[in-house]
Specification:
Layout: E1 9-13, H1 18-31, H2 43-52, E2 57-60, H3 70-81, E3 87-89, E4 91-92, H4 99-109, E5 115-118, H5 119-122, H6 132-135, E6 141-144, H7 160-167, E7 173-175, H8 183-192, E8 196-199, H9 212-215, E9 222-223, H10 235-243, H11 249-264
Parallel strand pairs: 1-2, 2-3, 4-5, 5-6, 6-7, 7-8, 8-9
């Protein structure tokens, strides 16, 4: 069923260059050979699937597994999605890069307005001081804080965001996947730090398990996300999960679109 009430803004997708998309798909296939993902890896096909599900805007988040690749990846993303009415191209950086230079090119030349950090893939921590030039830009930064190979987050890992949030209180930080399965730890960080948000992107086959009580008072800092195309959970299932919380029309609309539009633009 298409989403038909207000803006549907997917704040966590990976519509990536073909070579990177296929490499990620190959990694997942080796790690989880029995897992059948719901979407094809090709960016155009995944974008079409999002649109069919009712998504009107989305953010495509690249990430760098090592230093030296972010410059070209950010350029490819910006060129591929420039002017697209649906896709906002994100950018990335790795602590081993000249972080100030990579971020400056992404922001000042390519027009990036959101960055993605993937701590497990890149093997670093979100509070690595080499990342300070990124946080100083005061742009939203989506952070996959978990280090497990399967993408999950352990208790104690979301807390690594606290120091960053307090040092850079004007920088919106988004905990990817709501820190699942350590959602209580992510919730505690959000309550302690008003500039910390979280998205609802599943981890392969498992969406974050939330309750109304856990997220009460945080509805303005939660963003719908699908993780398309590297996911078994379909967009429609993620939408139903939000609806099943019975949050009321205003809070539901904020989570499904309004919050992301405020952070990233593109309403």
């Amino acid at each position: 069923m298409l989403y038909s009430c207000g803006l549907l803004f997917d704040a966590h997708t990976h519509l990536l260059p073909d070579r990177l998309a296929l490499a990620i798909r190959s990694f997942v296939a080796r790690a989880q050979p029995a897992l059948v993902l719901a979407y094809p890896p090709a960016a155009d096909e995944a974008r079409a699937a999002l649109v069919r599900a009712g998504v009107q805007r989305c953010v495509s988040l690249p990430y760098a597994h090592k230093g030296g690749i972010a410059l070209a990846l950010n350029r490819d993303m910006a060129e591929r999605w420039r002017g697209d009415p649906v896709v906002i191209a994100g950018a990335t950086v790795h602590p081993e890069d000249d972080v100030a230079a990579v971020v400056a090119q992404a922001c000042d030349v390519l027009g990036a307005r959101v960055f993605k950090l993937h701590c497990s893939v890149g093997r670093y921590e979100p509070d690595d001081p080499r990342l300070d030039p990124l946080y100083a830009r005061e742009l939203p930064v989506v952070i996959h804080v978990g280090h497990a190979v399967d993408g999950s987050t352990a208790a104690g890992e979301p807390e690594r965001v606290v120091e960053v949030a307090r040092r850079w209180p004007r920088t919106p930080l988004v905990i990817a996947h709501f820190g699942a399965p350590a959602v209580e730890a992510a919730e505690a960080v959000m309550r302690a730090c008003p500039n910390v948000h979280a998205d609802l992107a599943p981890i392969l086959w498992e969406p974050p398990r939330l309750t109304r009580g856990l997220i009460r008072g945080l509805e303005e800092r939660i963003l719908f996300g699908s993780d398309v195309p590297t996911v078994k959970v379909r967009v429609e299932e993620g939408l139903q999960q939000v609806r099943d919380l019975h949050l009321g029309a205003e809070a539901e609309a904020a989570i499904l679109g309004g919050n992301a539009a405020r952070l990233y633009g593109g309403a």
